[in-house]
Amino acid sequence: MNFSSKLIEEAVNEFSKLPGVGKRTALRFVLHLMKQNTADVNQFGNAFIKLRNDLRYCEKCHNVSDKPLCDVCANPHRDQSTVCIVEDIRDVMAIENTQQYRGIYHVLGGIISPMDGIGPSDLTIESLVTKAATGEIKEVIMALSTTMEGDTTNFYIYKRLKDYGISMSTIARGIAIGDELEYADEITLGRSIINRTPYENTLQMK
Questions:
Q1: What is the pLDDT along the chain (206 residues), one digit of tens a residue?
Q2: What phi and psi, each to the nearest 5 degrees, are found at residue 138?
Q3: Do both 122 and 80 map to the same domain?
Q4: CA distance 29 to 23
Q5: Which CATH number belongs to the domain containing residue 99 in this structure?
Q6: Which domain holds residue 188?
Q7: Fewer CB within 10 Å: C terminus or N terminus of the chain?
């Protein structure tokens, strides 16, 4: 793709670094921005600069937040003794959209995947174990994707927490094997949370 301007080429190259964005789509983005007034383009760019510089992570659950505690953890009406373990912020958003869950979350920041070089130490599992040791947690709901990596992570967490007297459950298999939470419809995901089953039952089925 030949460009008449180095500035356009650089902008296209930056947009094309985004997931799922090819050069042609990136060029459409750039041409669209070129037609906007300067103030709007500056606001667009500043939003991402501010996002990168000012975004924080909740001190309690590791969810993204603008404050030390995210809105969920800071809500006095949420059940602080029930913790739903998820992979990332997309899963928090998916479950919150169901309006069926009233506990809090623990965001792992990924799942165990030896093929990708991701081990337990790369996730926030240790802080979860520390919270469990305080006795504050009564139930842990493991809501990870129903993939081999998700199941491996579930089992690792189960082994780390099973001696703390915590009720451990997993979302019901209304979510198809191999599916990721963020793509599940809200009704199915909501029912999967409500109809969660003891984790030990899933071990007996294997």
A1: 777 899 999 999 999 999 999 999 999 999 999 999 999 999 999 999 999 998 899 999 999 998 999 999 999 999 999 999 999 999 999 899 888 899 999 999 999 999 899 999 999 999 999 999 999 999 999 999 878 899 899 999 999 999 999 999 988 665 544 455 555 556 566 666 766 777 776 665 55
A2: -105, -35
A3: yes
A4: 10
A5: 3.40.1360.10
A6: 76-205
A7: C
